[in-house]
Structure formats: C-alpha cells, structure tokens
Amino acid sequence: GEIILALRQLDLLQKTIVIYTSDHGELAMEHRQFYKMSMYEASAHVPLLIMGPGIQANLQVSNVVSLVDIYPTMLDIAGIPLPQNLSGYSLLPLSSETLKDEDKFKNLHPPWILSEFHGCNVNASTYMLRTNQWKYVAYSDGASELPQLFDLSSDPDELTNIATKFPEITFSLDQKLRSIINYPKVSASVHQYNKEQFIKWKQSVGQNYSNVIANLRWHQDWLKEPRKYESAIDQWLKKPHQSKKQ
C-alpha cells in the first residue's frame, strides 16, 4: 500500500508496472507440516499480481505460471529481446489489454510448470510437474520412492494420492517430466555433490566435526544421540561412489 501511495503521490503510478508476488508459501500444519520446502499447494502456490499501463484490469488468468516467468516478463516490459535459453516465458501477453480471448492464452505459455527442490532438510530430491488439473510429484530416481498424483480439481487440499489409481496419467506425466528434465540423472548429481562437499567440510574441521554439527541449525536431534548419527554418517561415506556416463 505504501509503495502504491508513493507512486501515486509522485504521479508515477500511471507509468509504472508493479509486480506483487512471493518466493514461497507457508505450511500451517497442512499435512502435519510447517515452514516450506514442500510441493504441497500451501508451500508452492504463491500470489502473482501485475498492474500498470497496458495491463488489463481485473483480469484473472487461469493458466499455471511460475516465478521463472518473472525475469522474461521484466525484459519484455523493458523492450529487451529475450534470450533463447530462458526457462520462463513472458507473462506480458497474458495480461495485455489487447488480448481478450482466453483461449489464445494456451498458445503463449506451456500448459505446465516445473519445480524442483534439493535441500538439507529433505531426504530426496523432489520434482513437481503441475497443470491446471494435475499435480505430479516424483522423488529421487523415480523408482526408490513412490510418486504422488493429485487431482486438484476434485482434491484441492491434496489429501488423496491417486498415482496407483490412475497409472496411465501417472505414466504420461512422468514421461513429460522426464522430457523436460532428466531427473534421475540430476538426483544422482546432487547425491554426488553432497558427499563430495561433506567430505571437504569434514576434513576442514577435523575430528571436532561432531561438536561443530552440535552447534548448527536443527541440532537438537543430533544432541540426543550423537554417536548414532556419527555412525550413520560413517556408513554413508563408506558407500562406494558409482559414477555413470550418460
């Protein structure tokens, strides 16, 4: 509100495009979870509002779009040609006052969005392919962990995983996901990187690494059974690394 008020007072509002969004949502005990780092809607679905000259007022676009679309949108607003290798798409045509037919929207942006997450607080790399109706979530190499499939049109709270109930849709979405990103290969690279970086860090702190971990973020569980977790790390480090050429 203060930004809009300042732009209006400076007589800049009519020639300024404002984009309002967020980097992530916030789980409030949906699915017995809090915080973020999840593909559930409470974490992954964020607001995106655009206003300004040339932007159609009160237009709600039903297409699924992504935060990676913001950068090409800003380039488009500035009149800068879009590089060929961008993952996102300009949203300016979707919100333009000159485009009235929503059916034409389908030709301006793919009918899906991709999201992936690799972090210290998850056990496996996670990948999401989202369409208007379906959300498909795959983990790790796609085989060691079962995927999830939700029909958001009938199950907006994502309470029922129907991946095994609709194997054809599950397979189709998985194939589409693999055509966009070779996620088993990416997951393997993440595992390799994690191990290599941990070994370097462990060597840098020496035998005192257990005490260092005890003072890091999320350390309460470590303090309860440090020997147990040290042993688990040792077993993980002893596993031979298997490099695959693809």
TrEMBL record:
This is Arylsulfatase K-like protein. It comes from the Eukaryota. Gene3D superfamilies: Alkaline Phosphatase, subunit A. Pfam families: SGSH_C. PANTHER family: ARYLSULFATASE K. Residues 30-179 form the N-sulphoglucosamine sulphohydrolase C-terminal domain.
